[in-house]
Amino acid sequence: GLLVENAIKDVLTLARVSFRETGRAERIPGFDQAPDFIVPDEFNPVALIEAKLTEDDGTARDKVSRVQRLRTLRDESEKNYDVIACIAGRGFKVRREDMRRMLQATDGKVFTRETMPLLVEATRIREYRVR
User: Fold this and answer.
1) DSSP states along 49-112
2) φ, ψ at 73 (rounded to 5°)
3) I want to staple 54 with a disulfide (CB 3.0 to 4.6 A). Which of 14, 48, 89, 121 is the partner?
4) What's the pTM?
5) 61 pLDDT more than 80
């Protein structure tokens, strides 16, 4: 179940990017549900990452709703962080409308296991990469 989360950690660690992984049911001020990862941290976020491996469309739909909620929170707070989704599994292939909504909520910043190596360069996370 941690396949996607471990891939994210590997990419961020390889790029030497500081990040905060949130715990299960952790409360973070300003968020009704904490995102899975925050780069670099919740005090100065430039990227929020939701991660999900799903084999059914119901779980995928729940994750789409969470991503949309993060986008709404960002827009309401007038912040400028990226909202990013990292996904895997056939659950995201079942309902095209859910995938469209996720792409809209993230401004196209949706990564799969195959495209995960682009996570840093294709988002604002690149600003925190150590060379």
Assistant:
1) EEEEE-SSHHHHHHHHHHHHHHHHHHHHHT---EEEEEEESTHHHH-HHHHHHHHHHTTT-EE-
2) -60, -40
3) 89
4) 0.91
5) no
